[in-house]
Amino acid sequence: MDLFVYGTLRRSVGHPMHAPLRDAARLVGQARVAGVLYRVSSYPGLVLDGGAGWVHGELYELRDLAVLAQLDAYEGAAPDDPEPREFERVRAVVQLEGGGERAAWIYVYAWPTTGLEIIASGRFVQPGG
């Protein structure tokens, strides 16, 4: 089972929540998914859209699926988070940078995007970074 990350969970960002992912998964490599990337605050939100551009991130192969509960809680996508949840974990096909496709879990932004800045490059750069 794979997980695609595009924001604060990427290894280069240095967020503390990357540690549980690193410990429970193997980095497959750079990947991308069709969609639109928004700057929500100090973090991004991805909306899947096959007619849009590309959102770039990292693909991980999960060795320990228990980490998903921890990541769901971080992303506001846990079953006990209030509705409507900000993020939802869904399955989608991602393209690997070196070629090929894999199905992966992705946290997609589920709140309205009106007024949010689009990150046209599809690459999240942490503010101040």
Question: Descriptors for this entry?
Answer:
129 residues, mainly beta, five-stranded mixed barrel, 2 helices, 7 strands
Summarize the entry for a quick read.
By secondary structure, the protein is mostly beta strands. Helix content is 12%, strand content 42%.
Topology (elements, then pairings):
Elements: E1 2-5, H1 18-24, E2 25-39, E3 44-48, E4 54-62, H2 67-75, E5 87-96, E6 101-109, E7 117-118
Parallel strand pairs: 1-6
Antiparallel strand pairs: 1-4, 2-3, 2-4, 2-5, 2-7, 5-6
Shape: globular
User: Runs with pLDDT <50, length 5+?
Assistant: none
How would a textbook summarize the main sheet?
Answer: 5 strands, mixed, barrel
Count of extended strands: 7
Number of separate helices: 2
Radius of gyration computed on alpha carbons: 14 Å
N-to-C order of helices and strands: EHEEEHEEE
**Structure classification:** mainly beta
- Mean pLDDT comes to 94
Strand order of the largest sheet: 1-4-2-5-6
- The N- to C-terminal Cα distance equals 31 Å
Proportion of residues in β-strands: 35-45%
Helix content: 10-25%
Question: What would you note in describing this structure?
Answer:
The protein has helices at 18-24, 67-75; strands at 2-5, 25-39, 44-48, 54-62, 87-96, 101-109, 117-118. It starts with a strand and ends in an 11-residue tail after the last strand. The protein is globular, with a radius of gyration of 14 Å. Helix content is 12%, strand content 42%. The protein has a five-stranded mixed β-barrel with strand order 1-4-2-5-6. β2 and β3 (44-48) form a beta hairpin. The longest helix is centred in the middle third of the chain and has 9 residues, at 67-75. The model has no long low-confidence stretch (mean pLDDT 94). It has 129 residues and is mainly β.
